[in-house]
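Protocol step 4 of 6: structure prediction from sequence.
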Amino acid sequence: MQRVRLFASQKLQIHPEQVQVFTPTPSTYSSLMYYTELDPFTGQSIFVEKDARRKERQKEIVTDKDSKNKIHEGSQRKKGVRTYRKI
């Protein structure tokens, strides 16, 4: 997931703020891949994260929530205003 975040920021020059969790839709290749954990064209095994906590952790990594959820100090802090991060 960190490679995905680096790819998005360095190659695509974007910094995602939101990430949508995949929801399988009937009659699509993506659903077939999700449920079988196989590439339908090559038959090769693929990784599919199905654990809710791990999916949430992946979202946090891609959106860089870890570094955004703490109190910002110094130049980013305006007088009398605090910005908080979730811990």
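Step 5 (inspection) to follow. Residues 69-78 have pLDDT under 50 and may be disordered.
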